[in-house]
TrEMBL record:
Pfam families per the UniProt record, alphabetical: 2-Hacid_dh, 2-Hacid_dh_C
Lineage start: Bacteria, Bacillati, Actinomycetota, Actinomycetes, Kitasatosporales
Species in which this protein is naturally found: Streptomyces venezuelae (strain ATCC 10712 / CBS 650.69 / DSM 40230 / JCM 4526 / NBRC 13096 / PD 04745)
Keyword Transmembrane part of the UniProt annotation: no
Record protein name field: D-lactate dehydrogenase
Domain D-isomer specific 2-hydroxyacid dehydrogenase NAD-binding: 110-296
InterPro entries named in the record: D-isomer_2_OHA_DH_cat_dom (IPR006139), D-isomer_DH_CS (IPR029753), D-isomer_DH_CS1 (IPR029752), D-isomer_DH_NAD-bd (IPR006140), D-LDH-like (IPR058205), NAD(P)-bd_dom_sf (IPR036291)
Length: 332
């Protein structure tokens, strides 16, 4: 059987081909799965997709009509898939339930340090041989307060790094993590976390209950010199409200690896096109904002684990097995 993999990055292609070797053939495409590209999957029983694929009812209907029976998503998040429609069409759906939490946690800290110490601005200046320090002053993190929203595996890894910096630890989650409690974390209501934290990092999944978790009210509650980092999902932050606060001169820094309207933009080269997203265009102009293109997970370790799990999901499907990664089971 040949697998069709959409949205494969150049670095991923040899890893995917090697992982499937000896099991199934695989055809890797750089284009993302969407309504326009879904017809390419006709005749492929198994399709693999990336997190920025659009799997709404139109795409799923096209896949099912073309003979696709299984979707293997190469990510933990699955908010881009209409699971109810998939189940109704008899499509099996699996994801990668976990991979290296350190990849995302370490990158979140990279963003935090970059905006706190003005690394991007400093680098751009030195390229022009401008070695002034004006506007580059940051702050020590030791003794300051970090707020971690979501203390699962990634949030815990982020917290351990914060503990190493000697920070005061505030957390918010539906359940307390014993490992974070041992590090000295105090769990509080999110309103208190927003008000007291000097650095806030988001590590919760995007669900209806968490969409715009950081809304206009939360942003106004935050300290004027706070740092906000989002390496989870773009929809957790009300970006329009964030731009409003940034225009008012608030926040020491904002580091975003995700954006709520990133589909159709991130992972693609848009440098020769006019970007019609006015919110994103405004966002990247602020000197205290760093935006990266959803790369927090993108390490050899994490990507290798994602691909290995994806291969195993396909093997489980062909063998009729069900694992914790299955979101919609194989129709009986």
């Amino acid at each position: 059987m040949e697998i069709l993999a959409f949205g494969v990055q150049a670095d991923e292609k040899p890893l995917i081909e090697k992982a499937f070797e000896g099991h199934h053939d695989v055809r890797c495409l750089g284009v993302f799965l969407s309504e326009d590209t879904a017809p390419i999957a006709a005749g492929y029983e198994v399709v693999s997709t990336s997190v920025n694929a659009v799997l709404d009812h139109r795409v799923l209907q096209t896949l099912a009509a073309g003979g696709t029976q299984m979707i293997a998503q190469r990510s933990t998040g699955f908010n881009n898939i209409d699971l109810e429609v998939a189940e109704r069409l008899g499509l099996t759906v699996a994801r990668v339930s976990s991979y290296s939490p350190y990849s995302v946690a370490e990158f979140a800290w990279t963003l935090a340090m970059a905006v706190n110490r003005r690394i991007v601005r400093a680098s751009n200046r030195t390229r022009d041989f401008d070695f002034r320090l004006d506007g580059l002053m940051g702050r020590d993190l030791r003794g300051r307060t970090v707020g971690v929203l979501g203390t699962g595996k990634i949030g815990e890894a982020f917290t351990r790094i914060a503990h190493g910096f000697g920070m005061n630890l505030l957390g918010w989650d539906v359940a307390e993590n014993p490992a974070c409690l041992e590090l000295g974390m105090t769990y509080v209501e999110k309103e208190r976390l927003f008000a007291e934290a000097d650095l806030i990092s988001l590590h919760v999944p995007l669900l209806p209950a968490t969409r715009h978790l950081v809304d206009a009210a939360a942003l106004k509650t935050m300290k004027d010199d706070a740092v906000l980092v989002n390496s989870s999902r773009g929809g957790l932050v009300d970006t329009d409200a964030l731009v409003t606060e940034l225009r008012a001169g608030r926040f020491a820094g904002v580091g975003l690896d995700v954006y709520e309207a990133e589909a159709g933009l991130f992972f693609l080269d848009k440098s020769l096109e006019v970007v019609e997203d006015d919110t994103l265009a405004r966002l990247v102009t602020f000197p205290n904002v760093v935006v990266t293109s959803h790369q927090a997970y993108y390490t050899e370790d994490a990507v290798g684990q994602i691909i290995d799990t994806t291969v195993q999901n396909v093997l489980d499907y062909t063998a009729g097995r069900r694992s914790e990664n299955v979101l919609v089971p194989r129709a009986s």
